[in-house]
Amino acid sequence: MSSDKFYQQIEQRFIKWGQEQADVHVAYVAGSRARLDHGADEYSDLDIQMYVDDPKRYLESNSWIENFGKLNTAIPFQNGGGGLEWLALFEGGYQVDFVIDSLTAFQVQSDKGVPLGWFLRGARVLLDKTGNAQRLIPEQFERSSSSAINEESFDFTVNMFWFLAIYLAKQILRNELWTVKLRDVECKQVLLQTVEWYEKLEHGEELDTWHAGRFIYEWVDDDIFTRLNGVFGRFDAADSWRALQETIDLYELMSRKLASHYQYTYPEALVTEVKQWIEEHGKIE
C-alpha cells in the first residue's frame, strides 16, 4: 500500500471515530501532509492536532489509537511547542503523531482568530463540530517566522559557542566520547542559528531558512554547505577533534562577519583564551 493511501485511510477512520465521540470536537491535519510548499513525500508522517474535553483521558491510554489501524507502538511525548502527543507507529512503518489539547484552549485561540504557529505553512480541517475550526486556518499560507538577529541574541550565542568549544575539547581529551556527542548537539544548534543569520545577511531577511535545518541544501550557499560536511565527527577522539576544529573555523568565519556588519561587540578576550587553550593542549592523532 502506498503511504498516501494508508494515510487517507487513517484520516477517514479518524473522522468516523471522531464523529462518534461526544468529547472530541475539532481536529486538523498539519505538517507536510497539509503543506503546499515542500509537501509530503513517501516518507512523510501524518500530524493530527485534536481538541477534546479532557486531554488526560486520551493521554492516559493509547488504546483508542487502535481504532485507526494495526498499532505497533505509541509513545507519549512532549513536543517542542509544549503540547502533549502520542507518537504512533503502525504496521508497515507508518507514523501518525496525535497532538492533543483541550477544547478550552481551542476556544481561546479561536476567539483570538490567530492561527497556531505550526499552521502557518499549511493546515486543513479534519473534523469540526464547533463551526469555528476554519478560524485557525491562515487565509494565506506563509513561512513561519525565524529567530531574528539582535545584539542580545548574538551576544548569547557567540558566548555560548566559545564556552561549548572549550568544554568539548576537554571532553575529547578525556575520551568522554558519549558526552562529546550529546553536548555537540548544543554546539550545532548554535552553529545552525548562525548559519541562518549569515544566509539572511547574504541574501536578505526574506530568505526562507525553514526550521531545524529543513531543506538546508536549498537555502544555504554551496561553500557553506561544503564546509558543513566536515563539522560532524565519528565516534573516536581524533575525528571528534578534527570536527571540532572545522566547526570552530566555520563558526568564526560567519560570526565575525555578522559582528562586523551589525557592529556588535565580539568577545575577543574569550576567543583568544579558548583558542590558545585548545592549541596548547595539542592535536589528537
Task: Tell me the distance between the termini.
Answer: 50 Å
What pattern of helices and strands is seen along the backbone? HEEHEEEHEHHHHHH
Query: Could you list the spans in which at least 5 consecutive residues all have pLDDT below 50?
Result: none
Total number of strands: 6
The CATH topology of the largest domain comes to: Beta Polymerase, domain 2
The computed structural class is alpha+beta
By CATH reckoning, the class of the largest domain would read Alpha Beta
Note the beta-strand portion: 15-25%
Approximate shape: elongated
Number of helices: 9
Written overview of the protein:
The protein has 2 domains: 3-136, Beta Polymerase, domain 2 (2-Layer Sandwich); 151-280, Four Helix Bundle (Hemerythrin (Met), subunit A), CATH 1.20.120.330. The protein is 47% helix and 15% strand. It has 9 helices and 6 strands. It has helices at 3-20, 55-59, 103-112, 151-173, 177-203, 216-219, 222-228, 237-262, 268-280, and strands at 24-30, 46-52, 71-78, 84-90, 94-102, 123-128. A 6-stranded mixed β-sheet has the order 3-4-5-2-1-6. Strand 4 and strand 5 form a beta hairpin. The longest helix is centred in the middle third of the chain and has 27 residues, at 177-203. The chain is elongated.
